[in-house]
Amino acid sequence: MKTGVPWKAITIMAVMAISGLTALSAGADEVQSLRGVQVDEPVVMEPTARPKNERMQRAYRQQPPLVPHKVAPYQIDLKVNQCLNCHDWSNAGDHNAPTLSMTHYTDRDGKQTDAVAGNRWFCTQCHVPQVNAEPLVENEFKSSSER
Ligand code: HEC
Ligand code: HEC
């Protein structure tokens, strides 16, 4: 038997690939995101900053308090943490900002520290800006204060 180019197989594969691509692009038109719009459609967000003293209740006792102001302008990386410019105990008073509680000055061995502990460095890992948004996914969570 001759080992020529299997044109028939190549043609079938090409047809399959093309119809696959068409199916994909047709599908993309119908993909709905959890936000209720198409995936590539931007959603206008409510501003996160709230007037002073309009803080949301904590939903459970251990909840990291929500941030009542914007977080995006403040850089946090390995070397810089701009949140500390206002919240570190050494300068919170100058900015009229709440100072970090002692849990933020307690390292992983339970030793109390003068500078913020490494395990509290990435503030936005726990603290998120507050926004009165509908839950993305239906759920039965009830805040402790409502139970
Ligand atoms: C320019 C100063 C400033 C910077 C920078 C700043 N904050 Fe604040 N923050 C404040 C002030 C002032 C308040 C109190 C606002 C109020 O009482 O309504 C506050 C409140 C908070 C609270 C609420 C505390 C509570 O007990 O309810 C959290 C949490 C917080 N900030 C986290 C952050 C995080 C995280 C960053 C960095 C991404 C940051 N802040 C950067 C000034 C600042
Ligand atoms: C591992 C999670 C975690 C990280 C990281 C963290 N926090 Fe907190 N934060 C909490 C929790 C939980 C509370 C409330 C209980 C407490 O005070 O420990 C809190 C409380 C606070 C408060 C209110 C303190 C008070 O006495 O009312 C401020 C302000 C705050 N955090 C800011 C920050 C900033 C700024 C950073 C980054 C330098 C940061 N936090 C990092 C979990 C975290």
Account of the 3D structure:
- This protein is 22% helix and 0% strand.
- It is an all-alpha fold and 147 residues long.
- The chain folds into 2 domains: 1-44, no CATH class; 46-134, Flavocytochrome C3, Chain A, domain 2 (Orthogonal Bundle).
- The structure holds heme C (2 copies).
- One heme C binds next to helix 2.
Order of helices and strands: HHH
The helix/strand class is mainly alpha
Do you know the CATH architecture of the largest domain?
Orthogonal Bundle
Name the shape in a single word: elongated
Task: Summarize the structure in short.
With 147 residues, this protein is mainly α. It has helices spanning 7-30, 84-87, 92-95. The protein has two domains: 1-44, no CATH class; 46-134, Flavocytochrome C3, Chain A (Flavocytochrome C3, Chain A, domain 2), CATH 1.10.1130.10.
